[in-house]
């Protein structure tokens, strides 16, 4: 695909064409259904290059192979469920099993297939060599560790509600971010976890229970029409809506848009994303911070949603602004196209951060003073592990975990 872009100079010649939409459309045209439907501008543009593409593709250009190559290199991330035990206890347990904690000075990320790492940024995120199978591991089976990509962990980490907060997760199933929020809050406070889809709601309830997230109140409702009375007092809101998933390394490259064209699907998703985000920012009077996140790398679902929402808020005299939730992070949105906005938006990517593609933008209410609205991430420092402990003492799994394992065995 890269060669195809270079040869045709498509992105330079068609500067308004979103690169990721171009990838999706070209994939569908050359390796998927082999046709594009609809009359939209992007579809017409890609069709006008059809012959050039056909004459200049080789088997090796297949994007599925590109994804496969990336997939092979993506570390297997896991999050320690700190509701059951500490990061230090988890690391000691793994070392006792024969895993080796990679050292800061190691030249390679994973010097051997026995090495693992503690993420330097997000407490409790562990990285194992690509391809490590953890689905059958007892720690995963009893939810002492959860299989969650680092990028997905970023959302709860940057929202970081303090203990005792009231939090609303508007698109909650299967509950990865909900349970992470509960762990960050040490189960102190209240998280309203809302999911519209009945099947996914069941999955959410089961997962919340298994992960021991007792501060979560699940609600099967449509968040777009959710009223403030159903979730009183919310201060922190996570909006993690359905999206194209274009940032997911493992996402199938074709066959995922059976009934409608990619364009129609994107259009519907963007409409929904704008509605739910605007509702989050206007319905809940005590909300102070709202985090918008997607696992998409399309600006249409990201910066475009954020900038159009800011315009609407301004029009309706709703006072919110964007804040930089992670100043130390390198991946940013497009500042040229979205001045004043792009630089405050966060992107995670496989190429730069060895994660799935992910996007975040943090809204803060204007009248919240910077000190009272500041992130309380430091309260979780006690859970953070020195990633290079020169210690060989190995601890037993804690009592609480043993208790949990017993409960699961009995059910
Ligand atoms: C990207 S997933 C959320 C992933 C989740 N935050 C996590 O980390 O596990 C989006 C979810 O939003 C749900 N959803 C879509 N529209 C909704 C709505 N109007 N109200 C509530 N939930 C909705 C979808 O069914 C889906 O489960």
List keywords for this structure.
35% helix, binds S-adenosylmethionine, 14% strand, 411 residues, alpha/beta, Alpha-Beta Plaits, 13 strands, single chain, eight-stranded mixed sheet
Instruction: Count up the helices.
Output: 15
Determine Rg (CA atoms, Å): 22 Å
Task: Summarize the biggest pleated sheet.
Answer: 8 strands, mixed
* Ligand identities: S-adenosylmethionine
**DSSP, total strands:** 13
> What fraction of the residues are assigned to beta strands by DSSP?
5-15%
Overall morphology: globular
For the termini, the CA-CA separation is 50 Å
Structural class: alpha/beta
Mind telling me which CATH architecture of the largest domain this is? 3-Layer(aba) Sandwich
Q: Indicate the CATH topology of the largest domain.
A: Rossmann fold
CATH top-level class of the largest domain:
Alpha Beta
- Helical content (DSSP H or I, runs of 4+): 25-40%
Give me the strand/helix succession. Answer: HHHHHHEHEEEHEHEHEHEEHEHEEHEH
Active site: 295
Binding site for S-adenosyl-L-methionine: 195, 222, 240
Biased composition (Basic and acidic residues): 387-396
Pfam family, one: NSUN5_N
What does this structure look like?
40% of the residues are buried. The protein contains 15 helices and 13 strands. Strands 6, 7, 8, 9, 10, 11, 12 and 13 form an 8-stranded mixed sheet that branches. The chain has a 5-stranded mixed sheet with strand order 2-3-4-1-5. The chain has 3 domains: 69 residues, no CATH class; 78 residues, 2-Layer Sandwich (Alpha-Beta Plaits); 225 residues, Rossmann fold. Helix content is 35%, strand content 14%. Bound molecules: S-adenosylmethionine. The site of S-adenosylmethionine (SAM) has 19 residues, from α10 and β7. S-adenosylmethionine binds next to α10 and β7. One of its GO terms (biological process) is rRNA base methylation. GO terms for molecular function: RNA binding; RNA methyltransferase activity. Belongs to the class I-like SAM-binding methyltransferase superfamily. RsmB/NOP family. This is SAM-dependent MTase RsmB/NOP-type domain-containing protein.
């Amino acid at each position: 695909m890269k060669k195809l872009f270079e040869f045709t100079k498509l992105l330079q010649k068609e500067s308004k064409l979103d690169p990721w939409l171009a990838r999706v459309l070209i994939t569908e045209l050359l390796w998927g259904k082999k046709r594009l439907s609809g009359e939209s501008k992007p579809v017409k543009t890609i069709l006008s290059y059809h012959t050039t593409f056909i004459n200049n593709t080789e088997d090796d250009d297949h994007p599925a192979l590109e994804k496969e190559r990336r997939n092979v290199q993506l570390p297997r991330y896991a999050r320690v469920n700190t509701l059951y035990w500490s990061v230090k206890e988890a690391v000691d347990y793994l070392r006792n099993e024969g895993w080796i904690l990679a050292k800061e000075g190691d030249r390679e990320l994973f010097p051997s297939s026995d090495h693992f790492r503690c993420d330097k940024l997000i407490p409790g995120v562990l990285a194992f060599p690509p391809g490590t199978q953890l689905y059958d591991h007892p720690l995963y089976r009893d939810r002492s560790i959860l299989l969650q990509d680092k990028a997905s962990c970023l959302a709860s980490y940057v929202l970081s509600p303090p203990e005792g907060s009231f939090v609303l997760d508007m698109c909650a199933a299967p509950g990865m971010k909900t349970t992470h929020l509960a762990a960050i809050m040490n189960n102190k406070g209240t998280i309203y976890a809302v999911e519209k889809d009945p099947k996914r709601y069941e999955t959410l309830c089961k997962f919340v229970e298994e992960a021991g997230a007792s501060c979560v109140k699940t609600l099967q409702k449509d968040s777009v029409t959710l009223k403030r009375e159903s979730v009183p007092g919310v201060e922190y809101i996570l909006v993690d809506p359905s999206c194209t998933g274009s940032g997911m390394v493992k996402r199938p490259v074709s066959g995922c848009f059976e009934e409608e064209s990619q364009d129609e699907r994107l259009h519907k998703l963007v409409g929904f994303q704008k509605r739910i985000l605007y509702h989050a920012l206007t319905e809940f009077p005590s909300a102070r911070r709202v985090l918008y996140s997607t696992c998409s790398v399309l600006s249409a679902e990201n910066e475009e949603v954020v900038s159009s929402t800011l315009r609407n808020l301004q029009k309706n005299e709703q006072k919110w602004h964007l804040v930089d939730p992670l100043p130390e992070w390198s991946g940013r949105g497009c500042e040229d196209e979205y001045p004043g906005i792009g630089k405050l938006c966060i992107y995670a990517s496989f190429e730069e951060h060895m994660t799935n593609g992910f996007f975040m933008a943090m809204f803060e209410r204007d009248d919240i003073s910077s000190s009272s609205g500041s992130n309380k991430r430091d309260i979780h420092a006690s859970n953070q592990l020195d990633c290079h402990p020169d210690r060989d003492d190995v601890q037993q799994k804690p009592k609480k975990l043993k208790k949990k394992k017993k409960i699961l065995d009995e059910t």
